[in-house]
């Protein structure tokens, strides 16, 4: 099997309501849908972060390197891209652009062999995957959707999700928006409402200074958190806070590539990594990350940055084949109003089913792809580092 062509289509899909985080708001998701064509007529599909800039890398640089290569020879393909990932200030191919193409190669391979991607990764060891409910403070949405701006309103939203999607094992509270003392009240309310076995994670995206982090997390210790993600910025800041508090730390900000793992562990900055199939350069490199993490006894959870159905399928296959990943998955899926696959995913008992394949086991809905590509052309990239309602506000790290 040989790659003959690669296509990339950016799409934008709106959120139910604008989600707030420390650097701005997420009004929707912009993703690039990738299709890898082969000489055998098999077309693999993939998805990754970003719009035109990603699509341009995919259809220019990635295609130039990959045309004529065999998707089965993944090692050979990765070896061709490896150098691009190691010099970040010069690279014209970011790991996430490659990841979208690589995902499509796994899908093509699965389709050729008539096996699910999980089988190609070592075997489907779990057929259903646990999620936490990923919760954000948010502005009001259209059609009378109320804002989430207090501990009670966030609890109410979680209860709605629980009613619809059924009993999540836990929740992740996205913080860094309101004064830290107010967000502590939200954590407290969830712990008091759901008891000690409910998994509770908190992520202020480095909105807190080292001293605010120490002060607040000392108070948070009593609420038995599963982990806190990036309370403060950089490996050094994380290490100084972690020395003072007993809560495990995870990151998707201070350790984002392999070479940063050992220094962070030596400094005692992290207990876990939020791995991401896109930002860590695809499924094969994420397998490597699982190996590194297991060897160093670092925990792993899955990071979410507004994936649609193709990426969600890839996450499900990946987690099902790697039992070292024991923390439930983060996903924005329930905040997004639509998808571009023919059978969108649904939570049942706080879980999603791993598609049976072949390949990723999901198909593109052509009408929806067209509709949301048109939306992308009209609206451009969703800019999350900005809040139109606060024109004079400048997002800074730290903010509190
Ligand atoms: Mg995070």
Short description:
With 400 residues, the chain is of the alpha/beta class.
Would you give an account of this structure?
The chain is an alpha/beta fold. It folds into 2 domains: 3-118 and 365-378, Enolase-like, N-terminal domain (Enolase-like, domain 1), CATH 3.30.390.10; 123-353, TIM Barrel, CATH 3.20.20.120. 37% of the residues lie in helices and 18% in strands. It contains 12 helices and 12 strands. The strands form 4 sheets. The chain has a 5-stranded parallel beta sheet, covered by helices on one side. The mean pLDDT is 96. Magnesium ion binds at residues 203, 205, 229-230, 252, 274.
CATH topology of the largest domain: TIM Barrel
Write the CATH homologous superfamily of the largest domain.
Enolase-like C-terminal domain
As a whole number of angstroms, the C-alpha radius of gyration is 20 Å
What is the 3D shape? globular
Q: How are the strands ordered across the major sheet?
A: 5-6-7-8-9
How many β-strand stretches? 12
Output mean pLDDT: 96
What's the CATH first level of the largest domain?
A: Alpha Beta
Largest sheet at a glance? Answer: 5 strands, parallel
Order of helices and strands: EEEHHHHEEHEHEHEHEHEHEHEH
In total, how many domains does the architecture comprise?
2
What ligands can be seen in this structure?
A: magnesium ion
Strand content: 15-25%
How much helicity do the residues have?
25-40%
Q: Structural class, judged by helices and strands?
A: alpha/beta
Spans of at least 5 consecutive residues whose pLDDT stays below 50 are none
- Give the distance, in angstroms, between the N- and C-terminal Cα atoms: 54 Å
The number of helices is 12
Label the CATH architecture of the largest domain.
Alpha-Beta Barrel
């Amino acid at each position: 099997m040989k790659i003959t062509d690669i296509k990339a289509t950016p799409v934008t899909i709106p959120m139910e309501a604008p989600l707030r985080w420390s650097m701005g708001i997420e009004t929707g998701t912009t993703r690039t849908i990738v299709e890898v064509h082969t000489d055998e007529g098999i077309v693999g599909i993939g998805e990754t972060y970003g719009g035109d800039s990603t699509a341009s890398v995919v259809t220019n640089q990635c295609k130039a390197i990959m045309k004529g290569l065999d998707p089965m020879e993944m090692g050979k393909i990765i070896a061709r891209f490896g150098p691009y990932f190691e010099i970040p200030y010069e690279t014209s191919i970011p790991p996430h652009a490659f990841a979208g193409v690589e995902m499509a190669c796994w899908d093509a391979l699965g389709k050729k062999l008539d096996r699910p991607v999980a089988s190609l990764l070592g075997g489907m060891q779990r057929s259903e995957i646990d999620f936490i409910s990923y919760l954000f403070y948010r502005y009001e949405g259209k059609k009378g959707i109320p804002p989430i701006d207090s501990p009670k309103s966030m609890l109410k939203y979680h209860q709605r999700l629980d009613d619809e999607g059924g009993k999540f094992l836990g929740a992740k509270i996205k913080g860094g928006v309101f004064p830290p003392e107010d967000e502590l009240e939200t954590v407290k309310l969830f712990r008091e409402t759901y008891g000690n076995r409910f998994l509770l994670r908190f992520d202020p995206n480095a909105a807190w200074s080292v001293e605010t982090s120490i002060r607040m997390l000392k108070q948070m210790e009593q609420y038995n958190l599963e982990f806190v993600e990036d309370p403060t910025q950089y490996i050094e800041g994380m290490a100084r806070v972690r020395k003072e508090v007993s809560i495990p730390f995870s990151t998707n900000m201070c350790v984002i590539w392999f070479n940063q793992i050992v220094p962070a562990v030596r400094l005692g900055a992290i207990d876990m990594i939020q791995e991401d199939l896109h930002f860590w350069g695809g499924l094969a490199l994420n397998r490597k990350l699982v190996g590194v993490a297991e060897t160093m006894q670092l925990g792993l959870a899955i990071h979410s940055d507004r994936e649609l159905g193709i990426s969600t399928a890839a996450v499900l296959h990946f987690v099902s084949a790697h039992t070292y990943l024991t923390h439930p998955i983060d996903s924005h899926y329930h905040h997004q109003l639509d998808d571009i696959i023919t059978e969108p995913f649904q939570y049942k008992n706080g879980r999603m089913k791993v598609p049976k394949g072949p390949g990723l086991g999901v198909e593109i809905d052509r009408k929806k792809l067209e509709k949301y590509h048109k939306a992308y052309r009209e609206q451009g990239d969703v800019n999350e580092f900005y809040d139109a309602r606060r024109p004079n506000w400048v997002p800074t790290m730290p903010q509190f």
